[in-house]
Structure formats: C-alpha cells, structure tokens
Amino acid sequence: MPQTPSATASATPTDVDRIVRRYVAVWSEPDAAARRRAVARLWSQDGVEFVEGVQFRGHEGLVDRLAEAYGLFVASGDYRVTDDDRVSVHGDVVVFTIQLRYSKGPQAGEVAWAARVFLLLDDDGRILQDYQLTVQPLPQA
What we know:
six-stranded mixed sheet, about 140 residues, alpha+beta, single chain, disordered N terminus
C-alpha cells in the first residue's frame, strides 16, 4: 500500500540540503550499482516521478529513468547537472530548480534546460512523489 505523507513530518535545513545534493548528484552517477543504491536512499519503495506526462514508479522504474537520462545527457560530457542554490521548504515539500548546463564549447556553463522540482517526502525523509516541471526546454537541434 502506498505511503501517505505525515502532517507532522518536517525536513530540517540539513536534511533538505542533503536531499537536494543527493538528488542532483544521482543524475550524474556513471556507475549503475551506485545509482541503484542512491535511488534506494533517496526514494521510498513506492516513490514515483512525474515528468512530461510520464510516470516512473518504484525503484526499478526510477533506476531505468535515471540510466536513460544519464545516457542521453551526461555520459557524453555535453552537459552537467546542477541546481540553482535556491531551495524552498514547506513541511514535507521541497522545491528547487534542477538544470542541465553546457559543459563544452562557447556556451559552456550556460543553462541548456531547467525544471522546477517538487518533492513530497515521507516520514523517513525519502521521496514519495517527485514532480519535474520544465521551465526552460532544451533548444531544438
């Protein structure tokens, strides 16, 4: 049965910082086994990510999602994953912006893509629901 958030659970600033750092880092993790362990630490067993009208459910679905994103964007060295250092927290909800920045060429360091991330945490500080809402789409090639 899926977990529901607790009305009393609340993440501390240290917890939030750790969650955001781990979340951003997992998108750049080249090692499949390390990525799988990171997913287990970050998301609840019933965790789900919603992005672009698609849902990725449970650890297996999230591991597959991360592997695909890594292969498409980070493995080539064309992009690196960052956040914008602005995090908002309200009880069990953590909101921040994740970004793909160009790693090469004249645009190196510039933001190529960005999304607002809304995380709903469970009582253990793991992600129950993860919403990525694109605010800056990738340029069309």
